[in-house]
Amino acid sequence: MTTTAEITRRCLALYEDLDFASVRAWKAAAPGRKVVGYMPVYVPREIVHAAGMLPVGILGGGDGLEVIHGDAYYQSYICRIPRSTIELGVTGRVDFLDGMLFPSTCDVIRNLSGMWKIMFPKAYVRYFDVPQNYVDAIGGSYYAHELAELREGLERLGEVRITDDALRASIAIYNENRRFVQAVYDLRAREPWRAPATEVYLLMRAGMVLPVEEHSALLREYLDAAAREERPRRDNARVVVTGAFCEQPPLNLIKSIELSGCYVVDDDFMLVSRWLQGDVPLDGDPLEQLALAFLHRSVSTAMRYEPTQAEKGRFLIDSVRRTGAEGVVFAAPSFCDPALLERPMLHSALQRAGIPFTSFKYAENAGQMQPIREQAGTFADSIKLWSAP
Amino acid sequence: MIITAGIDVGAGAVKAVLFGFEGGETRLLGKRTDRIRQRDPYALAGESYDRLLAEAGLTRGDVAYCATTGEGESLEFHTGHFYSMTTHGRGALHLDPEARAVLDVGALHGRAIRVDERGKVLAYRMTSQCASGSGQFLENIARYLGVAQDEIGALSVTATAPEKVSGICAVLAETDVINMVSRGVSPPDILRGIHQSMATRLAKLLKAIGTDEGVVLLTGGLALDTGLVAALNDALAGEKLALVARSHPDSIYAGAMGAALWGRFRHDRLRRAEAAAMSAPA
Fold first, then answer.
1. CA A20, CA A2: separation in Å to the nearest integer?
2. Statement to judge: residues B274 and B141 lie in one domain
């Protein structure tokens, strides 16, 4: 029987491998295989999968990559993920990518898509836009058109036809993956000592590079192992971590939050794996179903336009209530416009709801964790000792 | 009787205490300090805890809540962890109910903490990263001078002409001391000079947290250094602060005690929450 420690070790090896050996092995296993990269926060991986290609999350270089070339492309007041992504590109670490998708996360990622086009002219590069209007006939129609264009682009890249049946089959496979992902998150919210935040993080990171079927199997193994293993239960404060949806925090930061006396019961790391809430229906036009799911059953985050101001923060507050969290930790990358501009609105919403919070910034290569430990530790103490019983 | 433990893993020593709570009374059941001396602090903390329990005729299973503080968050057997300022604040209040500020002076850092009458931390400042305000620095100097650690305070208070030592940088301060030794300055005058340098920095920390009157309790590894206490009272007077700095024989255990006391608080709160959950309609 596989243990959580064994699964975590495997995921850690995948996380630390900035040469993406597992992806290269997948590509080399059969002739003509194609790999399409994507950046945070969300792309419909189902369409890439339906084309027989491997979607791979490119989440920057983390704290394991020295950025030399990347700094020449961006001003000093720009976050780190585009620099380290450029570094991955120019050093050949992601030379297996046949295509790259840049979601409309922010201006920086949008500009990166143009730079990628110039730097890697042979690759299929697409800036993937999303609707800011949630009326089916307007935003829905627009988004379905975007999805159709993506489908056509991938068909050209792979010289394949992506049929509706293939799309439905891929949606079903991702539905299953979303259910497993949700089951891991539910387990952690219920019994966080069984699924530490660092393990859950690494487990979800593995889903950025593994084929979805393999990732689902890994999640199932982890759930079985976590249910079997007895682990000490700590008296920790239960917190939701938010703001880290694009540039990822270093693993040590997540570890530090937990070590300082917090159980992370929900987060917004790698939202792509749970952007769509619940199953996407398998009947009807599959692109239309993906579009409707985006419009009406997707998570709320800074990159998703919220037309009703009163609704801002509701998703976060719901997450706090649903998971029984006692506070919120805002952890956002330095210079992240979406996260940092949304933060005051979320602060106000939490204040109105009487939910305590603390805020800090990080960079993906941050090494000094003492201030984070201090802040998270004192926040946990304030919840445990001074919040209403 | 409800028993809680507090384990403070510091940079230089592991401090552990046991408290028993019965009928509204709080009793200290045991305490021990183990110097780390290049050993694995986590293994030592486990051994120290087990020895303390054995001395009190108890086992780990008898402890309702084992709380850690300092660097103890990685100990596998702990129930909960509290940050150092939280535990030193609470521990100081237990040792000296009049204290409204705490100076925790340990091997690596000095911290000033302002607390209210419940032990709630109201403000906090810490020395910068340089080690010249720390116990480790003082220990190094004592070694150069051939003075035992427990003699430092007694020698310092006998100084007649203290020499000024750099308060900015440990390297500069050590150079100052070497020069003093070669000039024939007496160990008491050197030690007093160091104490004054440290005291000046600590007084500034107290000022920075907005404490200007009342009792300041020294905690941490240097709390029983009488020379430092004396120099600190001089420095407070120099800063025109109506503060009295004092120590307690158990000051070194303030962090561990605070952890154990907060452990008791959390134990009760968790039991109440469990009872409420059990009685809530399904």
1. 24
2. no
Q: How far is CA B257 from CA B31, B123, B219, in A?
A: 9, 20, 11
Cα B141 to chain centroid, rounded = 20
| Averaged pLDDT for residues A109-125 | 96
A328 forms bridges with which residues in the sheet? A240, A357
Q: Are residues B183 and B199 in the same domain?
A: yes
Buried b (16+ CB within 10 A) or exposed e, B230-259: bbbbbbbeeeebebebbbbebbbbbbbbbb
Chain B nearest C-alpha distance from A54 (Å):
39
Residue A260 near chain B (CB below 8 Å): yes
Q: Please state the φ and ψ torsions of residue B121, each to the nearest 5 degrees.
A: -75, 125
Does some domain include residue B260? Answer: yes
Under DSSP, the state recorded for A137 is I
ipTM: 0.86
Residues 230-249 of A with CB under 8 A from B: 232, 234-236
Sequence-separated (6 or more) residues with CB below 8 Å from residue A382: A356
Q: Does A287 touch chain B (CB under 8 A)?
A: no
In this predicted structure, the answer to whether residue B30 has a pLDDT above a threshold of 70 is yes
B141 and B75 in a single domain? The answer is no
Q: Flag if A384 and B80 touch (Cβ within 8 Å).
A: yes
